[in-house]
Amino acid sequence: MTNKTKILMPRYMLPNHKRLGAICIVLSLFAGLESYAQSGPPACPAPPAAGKDALGKMCVRLQVQNGRIIATSSNTAFWIPPAFTSALSPKVTLGGVEVALENQLGQILGGLPMPYQAALAPGEIDSSLSDPATNALRTFNGSLANYAQIMQPWSDSNPARGQPADVLVDSSSFFAPMIGAAASSSLSYADQLSSLDQSLAVFRFPAPFQSQTVMLQLPNSASPRQQARIRELRKTLAPLDGTLWDKNAIERRLNGYYARLGLAAQAVALNAGVNTVVINEGPRVARILLPDPDVTDHDV
Known about the structure:
Helix content is 33%, strand content 12%. The longest helix has 17 residues, at 16-32. β8 and β9 form a beta hairpin. It is an alpha+beta fold. The chain has ten helices and nine strands.
């Protein structure tokens, strides 16, 4: 079996008479890869013909701890392109970058429910379950392979429950926040490099932020007035140079700039790796002078 075996079997793609066979295939793959899934940090090689604009890589072997999906430093490896290091701020270390990226993924995984909770039958309430099989899933520690094995009889005990093949794959809604990591972090999930059947999740991350190269999209940006505005915006973003792409920090600085000008603008930093900020400029908030309360209507 190659490293790129993919198990992508959404429910709508499988006729009912084929689902049992598909589930068996998934479980056999997980079982066969059990020792591999526990072997520590994965390989995280440089991409072929990596150029100066190559994205960095974070490769993670996912685990289950106390019933939840986690990523630990001991099961995480990085490939960082030389250009990334040279663009870092002197105040930022590579070690600090790695910790920050690990924390971003940790926050995303921490927001996921326990996998079996995503497979509850319609109307089934988790808090009402106290059977040994459910409790074993709640307290499980180990690999995704072993988790899938003990989840299978739990799923089979109620035909309305989801199967491991519905949950522990990257096409599932369960993993959607991790697959969509770019919306809330510096990480972008690399589907073609990841193999969740081997517990392997690979993420890319862009070069450090640079205020002089980020694309700023404004209305009528070619006008001399807007060109001057763009230069001011780049100065506003300069303190972020050499740091990880931080959507919130970028938007906070730009929206603060417009607020000081009395403009109701909205800056939206796009996903990590796009290197673009879209700015919608609103009308200027005019200063309103109210008449003195002693002035009569006639005088006004």
